[in-house]
Design goal:
14% strand; nine-stranded mixed sheet; Rossmann fold; 9 strands; alpha/beta; 46% helix; 327 residues
Length: 327
C-alpha cells in the first residue's frame, strides 16, 4: 500500500517540477515587452506604442493568448498613425492577479481602470475572440470611456459546444489545480502543434508564433488555470451580456473569417450584428487568428471603421428607419 503511494508522490512531484520548469522556460522565451500598472484586483502588463497624441487603440487578446498575438503582425502597421495599447488580460501573459480570478465582466472593469489611469481619451477597443467579450462588457458597463468597439472573430454569444481545440480545458474546479500542475503542460507540449493548427485553420501557423506571437506562454500551469476557469464561466456570462445588446449605444464593428473553425461567424457575427443596432459585419477569407494571418486585411478594416460620432449617428438613423419600415 505504501509503495504505490510513494511512487505516485514521487511521480507527482516530478511532474509538478517539470511543469514549473517548462513555465519558466516559456517566460524566458517570451519575456515582458512593456510596463506594469496596478488596478483593483490585478497587476496588468501592457505595451504603449505610437504617438502619444494620436487616436488610441486598446487591443485585448483572446483565450490562451497574450498581447504578442497583436504585435506579431498587426501593430507595426498601425503605430505611425495611432497610439496602440496592448494589454495582457488579468491572469494571462505577464499580468498577475491580486484577488479572486475575474470573469469577463470583472476583467472589463480592470480594463476600464487601465484606461482611466493612463488617461486614454475615448479609445477604440479592439477585442479578439474572448477579448471581444471583454470589450462588449466594457462597452455595456462604461460606454462613456470608449469611442467604439472593433471585434475580431469575437465570442459574442452563448456557445453551447466548446470549440474542439479547447476541450482539454474542461476541468471541474476540484481537480483543475492538479491537472494544471501534473498533466496540462506535458500533454500540451505533445499536442501543441496540432492544437495550434486547429486554432489557425485553414490558415498556416507561423513558424515563429511560439516566440514572436507569444504562443509559448500558453504552456504554463498558470495559463491552463486561467483558460479552464474562463471556458466554464463564459456561457452564463455571455447570456447576461447578450440580453443587454439592445441597450448598447456605441459603434460596433465585427470582422470574421468565413472559414473560422473556432467560433461560428453566423452565430457570433451575423446574429450579434442583428441584435446590436447599427453594428456592421465584414467577412473575409480566413480562419480565427486574423490579426496574425491576415494582418493587412485587418489593418484596412480597422482604418475604415465608422467610429466618428457623425458617421455612427447616420448609421443608427438608417437602422431605425429600416426597422420602422419592416414593422
Amino acid at each position: 500500500m505504501l509503495l504505490p503511494l510513494g511512487i505516485a508522490a514521487v511521480a507527482g512531484t516530478g511532474l509538478a517540477s517539470w511543469s514549473a520548469y517548462a513555465g519558466r522556460k516559456a517566460e524566458e522565451l517570451v519575456p515582458p515587452d512593456g510596463q506594469f500598472i496596478d488596478v483593483p484586483g490585478a497587476r496588468l502588463h501592457y505595451v504603449d506604442l505610437g504617438p502619444k497624441d494620436a487616436p488610441v487603440l486598446v487591443m485585448v487578446h483572446g483565450l490562451m493568448g497574450q498581447l504578442r498575438n497583436f504585435s506579431h503582425s498587426l501593430t507595426e502597421r498601425l503605430t505611425t498613425d495611432y497610439r496602440v495599447i496592448l494589454v495582457d488580460r488579468p491572469g494571462w501573459g505577464h499580468s498577475a492577479l491580486d484577488g479572486p480570478r475575474p470573469g469577463i465582466t470583472a476583467q472589463a472593469k480592470m480594463l476600464a481602470a487601465l484606461i482611466e489611469q493612463l488617461s486614454l481619451h475615448k479609445p477604440l477597443v479592439v477585442g479578439h475572440s474572448l477579448g471581444g467579450a471583454v470589450a462588449l462588457a466594457l462597452g455595456l458597463d462604461q460606454p462613456d470611456l470608449v469611442r467604439g468597439l472593433a471585434l475580431i472573430a469575437p465570442l459574442s454569444q452563448r456557445v453551447e459546444r466548446v470549440p474542439r481545440p479547447f476541450l482539454g480545458l474542461l476541468a471541474p474546479p476540484p481537480v483543475r489545480g492538479a491537472i494544471a500542475w501534473l498533466l496540462a503542460v506535458p500533454a500540451g507540449t505533445l499536442s501543441s502543434a496540432k492544437t495550434a493548427q486547429a486554432v489557425f485553420a485553414p490558415d498556416p501557423v507561423p513558424a515563429d508564433f511560439a516566440t514572436r506571437g507569444g504562443g509559448a506562454l500558453a504552456l504554463r500551469p498558470k495559463s491552463y488555470l486561467a483558460g479552464s476557469f474562463e471556458l466554464l464561466q463564459a456561457s452564463p456570462e455571455m447570456s447576461k451580456l447578450q440580453a443587454r445588446y439592445a441597450d448598447l449605444q456605441l459603434p460596433v464593428a465585427i470582422l470574421f473569417g468565413r472559414q473560422d473553425q473556432v467560433l461560428d461567424p453566423k452565430l457570433n457575427g451575423e446574429k450579434t450584428t442583428r441584435e446590436i443596432r447599427g453594428a456592421s459585419l465584414t467577412l473575409i477569407d480566413g480562419g480565427h487568428m486574423l490579426p496574425v494571418t491576415h494582418a493587412a486585411a485587418t489593418e484596412a478594416w480597422l482604418r475604415n471603421l465608422p467610429v466618428s460620432p457623425e458617421r455612427f449617428s447616420s448609421i443608427r438613423k438608417a437602422a431605425s428607419s429600416s426597422q420602422a419600415e419592416g414593422s
